[in-house]
Structures
1.
Amino acid sequence: MKNKFIIYDPPMCCSSGLCGPNPDQGLIDLNTTLSELKNLGIEVERYIITQSPEKFKENSKVIDLIQKLQLKALPITTFGEEVVKTGSYPTLNEFKNLVQNDK
């Protein structure tokens, strides 16, 4: 696979967002999805805006979306050079379909 996924996350208290007494169900689902993707050999990187702002600045499409939609744009998921989803995390099927269509 020549492309990888990058998830640009909103501000979170920790790297996974799965901290505190009531973690967000969407982040729990994402964690499960990322584990499955790893088992399939699909590479996913994640960057949190408050912890890795330089990574956000490296992608002009991501910066443009944030300037236009502000934090509502986050999370932003890219695959290769393309933004593939904004405002929520892709499902396992969405990730798999993007990989399949890239072959």
2.
Amino acid sequence: MPVIHYIQADGAEYEADVAVGSTVMQGAVDNMIDGILAECGGSCSCATCHCYVDEAWFGKVGEAGATEKTMIEMAMDPQPTSRLSCQIKVTEELDGLVVRLPESQY
């Protein structure tokens, strides 16, 4: 199972084994990692699973689609590497992925 690294705004780091085919959001929820609220349950309609993909990984994760981009615009403090973690499908190639969680989601 790929390991995803979640870094909270205060610098606390957590690792979680996340099943291929799941999402980065679901990995955080399943492992009780604070900072991903996931209020809409992954339907790309609330932006409470906003995260910053580490620059070294952004090329592998890719850019957001049109609907996701609209939601990111409504998130607090969007950055060039912002994504909604509900829209990042975990693959074997994402083993080691690093995401940072915004302070606004605590």
3.
Amino acid sequence: MEKVKKKWFVYILRCEDNSLYTGITTDLTKRFEAHISGRGAKYTRAKKPIRIEFFSTFDSKSLALKEEIRIKKLTKIKKELLCQSYQLSPF
């Protein structure tokens, strides 16, 4: 039996104060629910996430972590542009 590889997600959340939070997970729905219920990251316990603005999938944790780091280094304006381009995508 072939082992099923986990998909990893890099995601950006919009918080109530309009800030953006970036993270990774293997279960995007479950992780978002954890953030909303206050069981997520310390940042989102204080800032209250309201929606997922962006996500991308990866075949390995290593690739997802590299992308998370890359996104976290972006300025807020560039993160906003990334989210905007994602929403405009027809896919």
4.
Amino acid sequence: MKHIYNNILQSVSNGDKLLAILIDPDKFPLNNTETFVNKVNESIATHIFVGGSEVEEQLTDALVNEIKKHTQLPVILFPGDVTQITNKADALLFLSLISGRNPEYLIGKHVQSVSKLKDSNLEIIPTGYILVENGKETAVQRVTNTEPLPRVNVQYITDTAKAGELLGMKLIYLEAGSGACEPISESIISKVKKELNVPLIVGGGIKSKKQLESAYNSGADLVVIGTAFEEDETFFDSLKKKT
């Protein structure tokens, strides 16, 4: 697949809303893959993201390989480190943590990844990654040693997102963090979306269909849900495709 980003653009142009299911290799039992992915296939999900802040080497490769056996959905890497890159996926979110000021996560890790990506078939999608305060410390915050942007400073979040776009990012990702107490607020999503000319991804803390719809209605083009399914797979029941 080399058309994932263009398909996202087309969906945004058509007014279609996208949903990615995030699977963390460090928390996901490999023997549950077929059952879980079958539920994903029956849902309104359009993409599968794979990655996490702290993942043992080789786990991502094994999980992606197993996922690909059971779905035709695009599998996109959402890596917390260079060790999570596998050519078995379809695409890679080339994340730059533009909310932080740690050079390792702004450019350092990217330089380290070049040798792995040079001969890769992955579709590489530059993505501005913005961590927003959610009420508790997240794994991203701990691993990257960066502070999230304050929720109350909506203008600064918006300006950071726009700066990412002007730097050439093809996607902007607003992240509350895994297991967030609160999802990204409607006011933040709405204001950021109004300033952007690239697709907006929103993730973290979304645990109900109502919160999902709220994110869409506020302007999110693609919503990412992960922890909610780790804690309760019955959430899929409310997201089944209409027949």
